[in-house]
Design goal:
Layout lengths: L2 H8 L3 H10 L6 E2 L5 E2 L2 H15 L4 H12 L5 H38 L11 H4 L2
Antiparallel strand pairs: 1-2
Length: 131
């Protein structure tokens, strides 16, 4: 199938497919004598895998790692488990950061409500400059 057909089947932009080719996520397709790209069912499956992995929050670099494992003849599920563990750790750390930020902002808002703003105590806003 041609790029427009493949893009239509997957509801993605043909430019995205070309980008994945340039990035090495999708193998260079065969071409017709007139230069049109010809994609196979395997290319469609690979693109579906890429899009599903992106929906899970994997980066293109991580997806490329998984594809390299698969292209090497192994199933990438073990590697995926390590990526997921790492991502979960990152999410936990980010959630902790956000909870801390939420507490800090809640405390700041309470201070602002309880104290009269006095802009003479600092050049901009003493609530920020004294914390």
């Amino acid at each position: 199938m041609r790029i427009g057909q493949l893009a239509g089947r997957l509801a993605i932009n043909p430019r995205t497919i070309r980008f994945y080719e340039r990035a090495g996520l999708l193998l260079e397709p065969e071409r017709t004598a007139s230069g049109y790209r010809l994609y196979r069912h395997a290319d469609e499956q690979r693109l579906r895998f890429i899009k599903a992995a992106q929906r899970l929050g994997l980066t293109l670099g991580e997806i490329q790692e998984l594809l390299a494992v698969r292209d090497g003849g192994s199933m990438p599920c073990g590697h995926l488990a390590r990526l997921v563990d790492r991502r979960l750790g990152e999410i936990d750390a980010r959630l902790n950061e956000l909870r801390t930020l939420q507490r800090d902002l809640t405390d700041l808002r309470t201070r602002i409500e309880q104290e009269q703003p006095d802009d003479s105590r600092a050049p901009y806003c003493h609530f920020i400059e004294t914390d």
